[in-house]
């Protein structure tokens, strides 16, 4: 290979390699892993708690997790920011979080139509899992302030949306996969993530509904298969009519608006030059 060919190949690889607003370090990965494990416990404690444990019969468990999660989310986001969130990344984070917060009220409460999901998925895809987690959590926080939706459910929404956006950043082919195949993959992921988000958020509120019919309510201390069947019946009876339209809107928006949004995000990422080394020269 000649020097000219090598130079062309190197320039092509730099052009196709997707820059990341945040390169996750060891501390950030550990922090994300810990918040994920604690989040699984926070959402799934009704199904995970042993029937003989005090937690299975405790009415304080949801409030304990609701109080604990905001502190943990703050620690994780601070850890990620400390390992590489510079001024350019903060500016992009603010713009995208504001856009996501503004999109959510456009359809919230109307058959589950939430157009913010497609933007979160595409942003996580382009900007990476670390940036995606912070963006998803911050967008939900800003949306709650904007709509007056602040309550014990808010930290659970922040964590769940952080997972959705982080997952998009972990999808394969970030540097090579482009075009129609990428859009189909993102649309499929968005559909699954939209339904999964509604399902895990059901777990957050399910223990509070003991006054409902016994066929769908949480019964403390009951065996896992029985509570799980009640939870599935609860999802089918209450939220599936919201989750499926949310998934459909995400798929349609990803396929129709996705090419333009991905192009704009990648252009902004290249111009921001997140990975460009900073050098200082003598005057």
TrEMBL record:
Keywords: Membrane, Transmembrane, Transmembrane helix
Transmembrane segments: 29-49, 61-81, 87-106, 126-147, 183-200, 247-265
Gene3D superfamilies named in the record: 1.10.1760.20
Highest taxon listed in the record's lineage: Bacteria
Protein name, entry field: ECF transporter S component
């Amino acid at each position: 290979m000649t020097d000219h060919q090598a130079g062309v190949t190197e320039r092509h690889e730099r052009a196709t390699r997707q820059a990341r607003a945040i390169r996750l370090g060891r501390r950030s990965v550990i922090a994300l892993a810990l918040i994920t494990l604690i989040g699984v416990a926070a959402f799934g404690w009704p199904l995970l708690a042993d029937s003989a444990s005090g937690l299975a019969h405790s009415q304080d468990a949801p409030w304990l997790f609701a109080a604990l999660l905001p502190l943990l989310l703050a620690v994780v986001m601070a850890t990620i920011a400390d390992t590489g969130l510079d001024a350019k990344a903060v500016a992009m984070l603010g713009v995208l979080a504001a856009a996501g917060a503004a999109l959510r009220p456009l359809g919230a409460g109307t058959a589950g139509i939430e157009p913010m999901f497609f933007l979160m998925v595409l942003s996580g895809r382009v900007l990476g899992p670390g940036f995606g987690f912070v963006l998803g959590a911050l967008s939900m926080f800003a949306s709650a302030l904007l709509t007056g939706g602040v309550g014990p459910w808010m930290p659970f929404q922040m964590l769940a949306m952080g997972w959705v956006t982080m997952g998009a950043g972990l999808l394969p082919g970030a540097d090579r996969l482009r075009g129609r195949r990428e859009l189909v993959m993102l649309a499929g992921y968005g559909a699954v993530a939209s339904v999964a988000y509604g399902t895990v958020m059901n777990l957050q509120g399910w223990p509070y509904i003991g006054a409902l019919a016994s066929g769908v309510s949480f019964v403390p201390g009951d065996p896992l298969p029985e509570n799980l069947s009640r939870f599935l019946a609860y999802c089918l009876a209450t939220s599936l009519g919201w989750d499926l339209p949310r998934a459909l809107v995400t798929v349609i928006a990803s396929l129709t608006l996705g090419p333009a949004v991905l192009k704009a995000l990648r252009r902004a990422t290249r111009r921001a030059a997140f990975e460009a080394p900073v050098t200082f020269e003598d005057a």
